[in-house]
């Protein structure tokens, strides 16, 4: 596995802690808009430097682009940030790690085609792992799921549904062009939301460096350069060899949250890490 791909997975894992820290300085919508704005600018610069072709889209493809932007960027980011306002970065890292398995399950339901036994077992392990996370809090149970964890689960659902819409754009343009376009449109949606929201805009003091540095890391390094490393790896070694790297994200995410934010690590979370990572490995294995 190439070091740049490992670095991207580390950035995605650490990003959960970065967003958690920033929720103390920014309101949720403004934070999401600023992060995605930085990502869109960086991705657009990469597209320009690589001299990638930007194709003309049909009305159907334009609708798919809008749907992708609304789900993969706008909906996902708002729910993620609002969830991290109340849940831990460790829990968020583990729940988000279930995204590939959730996308696989949703795609199978949409196409009415059951995945193979190995993939299905991986999805089941991931579901049990997530259940350990969201129901493992003191006093938690069915019907008493923590609000922050529930919002992160909804963010995962947004991502999985958005992945179905992006199929309409597959093959029409380079993945970085699609990523830059969805992040640009998503940023516009977030900016409109922020402008119309009755909630006051919350920003850190200009001389408080830490939140601005975390913002730059989250938008430029994790979102933009992380996606670039991901798509570059797919181009070099293929999706089959690249996708299992996603299993590193919860390890980096939970590890950094425990070490840097002093978040507690329970036995249930350790078990959940194992279930989500092993489940993700089997869910993303190619079927014979």
Q: How would you describe the overall organization of this protein?
A:
The protein has 288 residues and is an all-alpha fold. It has one domain. 73% of the residues lie in helices and 0% in strands. It has 12 helices and no strands. α1 packs antiparallel against α9. The chain is globular, with a radius of gyration of 18 Å. It starts with a helix and ends in a 5-residue tail after the last helix. The relative contact order is 0.24.
- What's the order of the H and E elements? HHHHHHHHHHHH
Helix-strand makeup class:
mainly alpha
Measure the end-to-end span.
23 Å
Number of domains: 1
H/I helix tally: 12
State the helicity in percent bands: over 70%
Largest sheet: none
Unreliable spans? 138-144
In short:
The chain has helices at residues 3-22, 28-49, 59-84, 89-96, 99-111, 117-134, 147-165, 175-196, 209-237, 239-242, 248-260, 267-283. With 288 residues, it is mainly α.
Architecture blueprint of SSEs:
Elements: H1 3-22, H2 28-49, H3 59-84, H4 89-96, H5 99-111, H6 117-134, H7 147-165, H8 175-196, H9 209-237, H10 239-242, H11 248-260, H12 267-283
Brief descriptors of the model:
288 residues; mainly alpha; 12 helices
């Amino acid at each position: 596995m190439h070091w740049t791909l490992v670095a991207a997975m580390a950035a995605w894992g650490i990003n959960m802690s970065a967003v958690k820290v920033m929720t103390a300085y920014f309101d949720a919508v403004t934070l999401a808009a600023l992060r995605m704005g930085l990502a869109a600018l960086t991705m657009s610069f990469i597209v320009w430097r690589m001299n990638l072709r930007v194709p003309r889209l049909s009305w159907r493809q334009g609708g798919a682009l809008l749907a992708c932007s609304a789900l993969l960027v706008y909906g996902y980011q708002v729910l993620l940030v609002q969830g991290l306002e109340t849940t831990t970065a460790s829990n968020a890292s583990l729940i988000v790690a279930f995204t590939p398995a959730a996308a696989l399950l949703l795609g199978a339901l949409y196409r009415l085609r059951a995945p193979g036994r190995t993939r299905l077992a991986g999805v089941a392990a991931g579901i049990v792992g997530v259940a350990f996370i969201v129901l493992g809090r003191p006093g938690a149970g069915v019907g008493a799921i923590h609000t922050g964890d529930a919002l992160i689960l909804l963010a995962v659902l947004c991502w999985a549904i958005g992945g179905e819409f992006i199929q309409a754009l597959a093959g029409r343009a380079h993945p970085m062009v699609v990523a830059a376009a969805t992040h640009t449109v998503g940023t516009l949606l977030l900016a409109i939301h922020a402008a119309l929201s009755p909630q006051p805009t919350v920003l850190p003091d200009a001389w408080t460096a830490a939140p601005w540095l975390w913002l730059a890391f989250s938008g430029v390094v994790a979102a933009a350069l992380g996606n670039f490393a991901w798509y570059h790896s797919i181009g070099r070694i293929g999706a089959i060899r690249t996708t299992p790297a996603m299993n590193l994200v919860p390890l980096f995410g939970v590890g950094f949250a425990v070490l840097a934010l002093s978040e507690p690590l329970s036995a249930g979370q350790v078990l959940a890490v194992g279930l989500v990572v092993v489940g993700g490995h089997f869910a993303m294995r190619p079927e014979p």
